[in-house]
Design goal:
- This protein is mainly α.
- It has helices spanning 2-6, 25-32, 35-40, 43-50, 64-67, 81-96, 117-127, 132-137, and strands at 19-20, 23-24, 107-108, 114-115.
- It has eight helices and four strands.
- It has a two-stranded antiparallel sheet.
- Helix 6 crosses helix 7.
- The two termini are 35 Å apart.
Length: 151
């Protein structure tokens, strides 16, 4: 993105389909600006994006009661993928007494949502190091370190 914008004067528009060295920078940028993905970026990543003037897309106001069904106990279901994953991990640990999860395991939440918990955990440990503290609080020992370790 920096290479693409380096030669631009003023505001530049990078649409999907604009490629640099075979990478569709426009599509990548469009994904990065989505509110949910933007919120998942580390502060340093957001700062790098904001430096050339990139900002998150505005959130679309929706009616949550109509968009998301409530859980059977009346509580609202977890909103984002990370929250669904931590809810599934806590449920799995409460049921089994362990946080050793096979990669193929799928956990069904009380609201019927299925979470591919093994895949989610692998991806979370590898990509979302800023959220490892929440995993450590749920008893995942390897999450307490700053390095990504096999659990």
């Amino acid at each position: 993105m920096r290479e693409l914008l380096r030669e631009e004067d003023g505001q530049a528009v990078v649409l999907p389909g604009v490629t640099v060295h075979g990478t569709d920078v426009g599509r990548w940028l469009e994904r990065q600006r989505q509110p949910a993905l933007w919120a998942g970026l580390a502060a340093e990543q957001r700062a790098l994006m904001e430096e050339p003037g990139v900002a998150a897309l505005p959130t679309v106001d929706a009616e949550p009661a109509e968009q998301t069904p409530a859980a059977p106990d009346g509580s609202a279901p977890p909103a984002g993928a990370f929250e669904r994953g931590t809810t599934a991990l806590a449920q799995y640990r409460a049921r089994t007494g362990t946080v050793t999860i096979p990669r193929q395991h799928v956990e069904r939440l009380e609201d019927g949502t299925e979470v591919r918990l093994g895949v989610w955990l692998t991806n979370t440990k590898a990509r979302r190091t800023e959220r490892l503290a929440a995993l450590a609080a749920l008893g995942l020992g390897c999450a307490a370190t700053s390095r990504v370790l096999p659990c």
